[in-house]
């Protein structure tokens, strides 16, 4: 399984009569973790829905491996901030859901769900209901469910936005860890510059002009490099792009 190459070619997206994203172009390389930052309301979620195939493009095009994206597909999985688990199904049966859709046998589904729950540290919670878990644990179940389906691209919309700082840090480290074992391409929308600098290989700041500012992350997903001069420099660059000013 290889990660999908994703591409926006002068794409415009919107809601009703209103265009939100205009003339936007960028490429995400296979297997890359690509974070998207931008002012509130600039269209980050709209872009993610477009990449998921949930929102038709108005102009230009979005591509997955050079095929135009026109509808949702299991190879592109979306993970939200909101708790999207089914409350009446046990944790294990929630993780089994994408596997059932893919037609895996009952035994294979169960085995794969249990493996993924182990990987996110919830092997002993499989029989509980989502309401019996904390918010952080529920996000771990969502992560397991998203990755268990072996998508070639994972589209994450502020997945840790609702968590407290400590749980959020733990989730970022867990994500970095589990991504090592998948080849999936990840597009990660966040408000948090430091989160982007930790989880991503490259960060895009959406600007109204359509050409995002792109910043390479030095030593991604290595907690030891947080705060090093190179990372501080990348941080300054991102903040400058976000606030549309030149670096000091
Ligand atoms: N379903 C919808 N119908 C109508 N307008 C919408 C819809 N979803 C989003 N919008 C509008 O589109 C604009 C962009 O919204 P979007 O959620 O994509 O921005 P965002 O950058 O993700 O914002 P935030 O950082 O605050 O989450 C906003 O003005 C929003 O009100």
UniProtKB/TrEMBL annotation:
Keywords: ATP-binding, Nucleotide-binding, Transport. GO terms for molecular function: ATP binding. SUPFAM superfamilies: P-loop containing nucleoside triphosphate hydrolases. Residues 6-233 form the ABC transporter domain. Pfam families: ABC_tran (PF00005). The keyword Nucleotide-binding applies. This is ABC transporter ATP-binding protein.
């Amino acid at each position: 399984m290889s990660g999908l190459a994703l591409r926006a070619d002068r794409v415009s997206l919107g809601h009703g009569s209103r265009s939100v994203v205009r003339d936007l172009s960028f490429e995400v390389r296979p297997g890359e973790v690509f974070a998207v930052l931008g002012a509130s309301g600039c269209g980050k979620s709209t872009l993610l829905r477009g990449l998921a195939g949930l929102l038709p493009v108005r102009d230009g095009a979005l591509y997955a491996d050079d095929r135009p994206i026109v509808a949702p597909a299991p190879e592109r999985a979306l993970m939200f901030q909101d708790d999207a688990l089914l409350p009446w199904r046990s944790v294990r049966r929630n993780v089994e859901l994408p596997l059932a859709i893919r037609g895996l046998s009952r035994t294979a589904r169960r085995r794969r769900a249990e493996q993924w729950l182990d990987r996110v540290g919830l092997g002993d919670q499989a029989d509980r209901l989502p309401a019996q878990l904390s918010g952080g644990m529920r996000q771990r179940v969502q992560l397991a469910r998203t990755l268990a389906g072996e998508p070639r691209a994972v589209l994450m919309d502020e997945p840790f936005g609702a968590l407290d700082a400590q749980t959020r840090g733990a989730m970022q480290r867990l994500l970095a860890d589990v991504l090592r074992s998948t080849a999936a391409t990840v597009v990660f929308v966040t408000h948090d510059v430091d989160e982007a600098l930790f989880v991503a290989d490259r960060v895009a700041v959406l600007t109204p002009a359509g050409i995002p500012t792109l910043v390479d992350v030095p030593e991604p997903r290595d907690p030891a490099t947080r705060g090093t001069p190179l990372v501080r420099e990348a941080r300054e660059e991102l903040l400058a792009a976000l606030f549309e000013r030149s670096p000091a």
